[in-house]
Fold each of these.
Amino acid sequence: MNIPAPSRQFAAVLLCSCALTPFAAHAQDTATNETPAQEERTSTLDTIGNIVVTGTKTQNPEDVQDVPLAVTAFNADTLEALKVRDVQGLTFSAPNVSLDQIGTSRGQANFSIRGLGINSSIPSIDPTVGVFVDGVYLGTNGGVVFDLFDLDSVEILRGPQGVLFGRNVTGGAVLINTGNPTEEFRGKFRAAVDGPVDGGRGGANYTASGVISGPIIEDTLLFKVGAYYNNDEGYFQNSFDGSNHGAAETYIIRGALEARLGDLTLTGKIDYFDSEGDGPAAQNRGAFERDTFDFAIDNRGSYTNETINASLTAEWDIGPGTLTNIFGYRDYQATTDADIDATALFLFHSSTETEQDQISNEIRYAVSTDNFDLTVGGFYFDQSIAYTEIREIPVSTPLTFFGGGQQDHEVLGVFASGQYYLTDSLSVIGGIRWSQETKDAAVTYVRPRAACSVVDGTCPTTGVNSFIPTENNGFTDSVRFRNVSPKLGLQYEFNDSQVYAHWTRGFRSGGYNFRITNANAFEAIATAPGGSFSFGEEQVDNYEIGGKFETADGSLTLNVAGYITTIDDMQREVNQSDPVSGVAQSIFNTANATITGVEAEARMRLSDSLIVTANIGLIDAEYDEILFDISGDGVIDQTDLDLRLPRVPEVTFGFGFIHELFIGDSEILTRVNYQYRDEFAYTDNNLGFVQDISNLEANITWVTPMDGLSFSIYGRNLFDEVQVGGDTQIPFGGALSNGVNQPFGAAPAAGTFSPLSKGRQVGVEALFEF
């Protein structure tokens, strides 16, 4: 049954109101009828409030309130309360943070923090937000936004983190820490089912996982094994044939061993990830209304993803400090097939194949004394990427487009970071990192040709295109970057609170575009005086002042930060619809810009049973100098300066609560969270945008009298808001009868490729742990 939108929103609010109902009764019960057994019961809210962070890489993990850094952290209990199943699930939990998928293929990260983000699925493009799993940097955005389970913590560090984490973290860093083996024998088993509750949509989404952990040799050798399975029948309905769309099947197998050998601890982890399913549910917004989930595509599409991740961490107490070495390995293979024209006609279909493998090693020594903290270290990273793209565009040419590229990428770095206490309250923060980055690339232009496969080495990068003799096939080139990233600041601590200020500089790598569709125009720029086959690096300077305030009893915390971020030689993928190639995606250093913002997060424990949270982020962004004609009108002028920076929502805010109610030997845990994110431009010419979204989530968990057994009812996107992973212009799709082709209009350009994210979902979950 289809319920009118206003009624659905009212129903969602009513659900949350019902969740609030126990509060008043509980307040009375605790005042008059509380039993000794209830007084002694361990509170779930106590564990949710205890959060430490590892992102400072000091000798010992620090309380989140003690670090002079804008960071939002979630421990295992908080993640459980939020029902987080992938990194994207945290996109509505922190100010000025968007952890979205780009939508071109499942799992492709499109992260943005404080207005610094990318809009590209090209694997040779480095991120602005680095993702680290158990301390290992993921070298590409592919395969990042996939299912997660058995997590110890997630940390979102806002602002450049170049000193400790290196290049390509100019926006920030997301640290994902999976569960370690335990000293005691423990297990956790989970099963859940959710799906759409609105008529005219797809099927159910089934999930099951299990983890067992404990000692092999007491206090010496510990183990953990886990498995995860997800079968999604597809949330959407494709009106082209009435079929469910968005189906996916995912398997994860994970193992870990920890050996404690005196002062040396070795922890090895490995997981195997396999997933396959449908291509994107792409809406053409030249044919369908933006506030609907309606779409019709003739090509179902597909994706496959197979990944092996492994890490070995050694921690050795030597002298006054701890020596840590983290070795990482990743092998990633993926294929995609998508209906890019997003219509019921065969106008523009595209498939890709990607292979990536990487190794990395970080070694560091950290010392903490009464007067100073010091961490020094070195970093090595090496990855190889191969990418092939095929475009089928029968309306523009009877030929098939092939292209792509290969790249070897090496990074060397040394760093030092410290904090020296001038007095018991005042300290100086400092750090510096030297980095060298080398990229060797071979690129084949995406142009009509007989066949091409970068992966097996049959894609030509030299010679002349046999179908277009006036064009070359591609090029080979190498580029090297060397930089120094400094940080300098102060921290003043008082009465369980602090204020801090710092300046830090970061860099985002330059490199190569694997998706060049206009060979002659590109080479004309590349071979001109001062030109290059590579695009340049991006420099980011961040000036920040902040404070973290906490009451003596810890019942109230308030974290605020204000910042000015300047970006020189901003990298952007400029998207332009093209009737021959479908869409031209060129990467340029487009502008210099300034982003100014403020953000605040608050947490208040109003009673033993109720925690209230709130956050807000405000951003103002503007261009200072234009280096490239981003408006597309042929000249660089005030029109370009007046455009909005892409990926910058001007306002984000949210609030929520977690409530705990004891009823006899059982417990009711209720969590409700609302988050708003303003609209933002997706394309540089502002003809594509992602609309604002109000996201409401809620869950109620019954912790039964049976030890370790609980049941939950949860809802996501309860307002049923439409969200997309992009808004790329394409020259296909008819305009709406009442549409207006203008910036932020109903039907930008001639059509769009706008992959839909899921709307309202409701589910149930059973959890047993021992």
Amino acid sequence: MNFWLAVSSHGSACRRAPVSALLALFALAFAPQASALPSYEEVRQDFRSSETQILSREGEAIQRIRTDATVRRGQWIALADVSPALRTALVLSEDKRFFEHSGVDWGAVSSAAWGNLWNQRTRGASTITMQLAGLLDGDWRQGPGGRTVVQKAGQAVAAQVLDRRWRKDQILEAYLNLVPFRGELVGIDALSRTLFDKAPHGLDEREAAVAAALVRAPNARPAQVAERACGVLKDMRKSQATSCDALDLFTTGALQRRAFDPSEGIAPHYSRQLLAQLRNQGTDVKSARLRSTLSAPLQRVAVETLTRHLRELRGRNVEDGAIVVLDNATGEVLAWVGSSGMLSQASEVDGVLAWRQPGSTLKPFLYAEAIAEKRLTAASLIEDSPAYIPTANGLYIPQNYDRHFKGWVSARTALAASLNVPAVRTLVMVGTDRFHEQLKALGMPLRESGGYYGYSLALGSAEIPLLYLTNGYRTLANGGRWTGVQMQPAAITKDKSPTQPASKQVIDEGAAFIVGDMLSDTNARVRTFGTDSVLNTRFWTAVKTGTSKDMRDNWALGWSQRYTVGVWVGNASGAPMHDVSGTSGAAPIWAELMVWLHRSERNRIPKPPANVVKTAVQFGALDTAGSWLESPREEWFLRGTEQKLFAIDSVESAAAQASSTSSSSRGKKAATQAVAQGMPARILSPVSGTIVALDPDIPPARQRVQFIATDAPDGVRWLFNGKEQGRGARWGWLPWPGRYKVELIDAKGQVLDETAVEVRGAGVRQQSQQK
């Protein structure tokens, strides 16, 4: 016979006397174990959610991630945050005299014993307090065959101890947070968010009835749960007429729902990376509340700004983007947006860590190295004209973004206006291996050697994640001193200041300063970006844009005195964008974030280091239109490299004529005199034997070969295999596969110069032609 205690059923006093006597004996036996029950504060403190919360630097929860796969618990919910309907439903279902008894409901015990004696089904005698005791101590939990008499007695003793030590509201609150509901769901927070997609304070009567029914039968079939929930709902409404016709369908739908996402918040990609970093350090991240470096307000603005701009770009086949904001001083990550979320078909891909081609964004590091090695100054003149660079794989012929050439330009203009050919010429001076070494020193995780990338490395042919590229720009902002990125808050010293990370000088301080000054020069970028560019901020910033081959990646990276911001837009799939330029893709996002960051913060112009000087310079060479190449200005130099005049020997210069002591002017005069004596015109470009390889990724109409003749008289013409194709000293030819004898003739038909050119096109049958 299975009944609670062997007692008489005649009269309440008769029933209670033997029970109380036996309970007194059990109390003595279980006293040590019952006295070891934890306090409410201990239970609350030891509660472990299956979620880890990531907190912002301000202490605000910005991301929740499930880190315990064995159970599903939400957060601890205070009783005041549980809906009154659920509290009522639970008490009516499990323990109607909860607020009256002292842990054990003797009336229910007697009824259960009498029912067991006569094999009658009655409501169980286990109170909420007794069930909580079983949840707190595994020795009193119910096994597959039910609890033994000894377990029940111990549970009753423990319940009375709990009732004396804890308040009723504490008992009910702890029970709601610790009770298993269904499957892996434990606690009211996990149940509410999973089955009803709402917080516990929002549960209505019908939802509360279903939740209370699951306590008694956690894994019952939906129909059984609905039947019990109907009884609970009727008890709650008492005299009101209650129909349960639709409750079966509602219960079935709720039990099938899984609305509690494993991750939720505004920083999912950052949080996963932070947890991975902590795990690698041996830190237990389960059920933790982890402080991060992210700024919650900035993160929200970054997410909103990226989403809004990408919606505007959807018509141009752009759906993905990423943002990183770094603190220049500490390297702490202040914002990390890895995806456009719902706008993306690959929202789980972290664009901050994805390998993408950086395009022209590597140029600042190249010019910094050339300046540091004293191969160039910011005022040095570099020719932006067709270049044919022999490599092991054939000729490398770089082109500018707009397919036009600017002639002779200063390094300042070449960098700020993002001209490709001068960058490649600069890399030829520096060397691919040396530039590769510099990028590695900046923390760039390059997969291949410098020789593998070749001269295209100047134009960003390597793949580099946004995080490392942004930190490289932060290195320029810090005067060439590199430190790693920090995802965990910096430790605080005794004087309450954050500890500074270890750093190393990887770029000359003066060279880094000069490159920053070049990238902040709005006048220098006019040739490419115009006078009213989105890159022009009302406060000091240095910025560089970039676009990879076929418009697959678009970048904007730059810094102010305190912050470095990096933005990428494109498609995670690698699909090309349509008509997206450096100023229409990532740049508007970069500019908007910079304005927000400095909305109430002063921003100072960087102070020049000791190894730079400013000198007034003039550009004596004339371009082909007869105007000065660049206006006189004051320019920054590494100490010892400064000079006042920059000119080209092969072209007459008024400034050179005025400076009789200049050795370069004597060369210019000699060249001018030679022209006056009637030296014939000659073909400067392309040189004889040039092989042009057509790029299958560039539309044929956009591929032009520039033919340039020096000192050519009026009326010169270009003949290709005897047929006239163009006129003028400069002419852009649309190439077609074949071999050509090119002749430059004057107005009288006299041959002035000739060259040989071969054009090779992929997939096009070449026809040999006789010279």
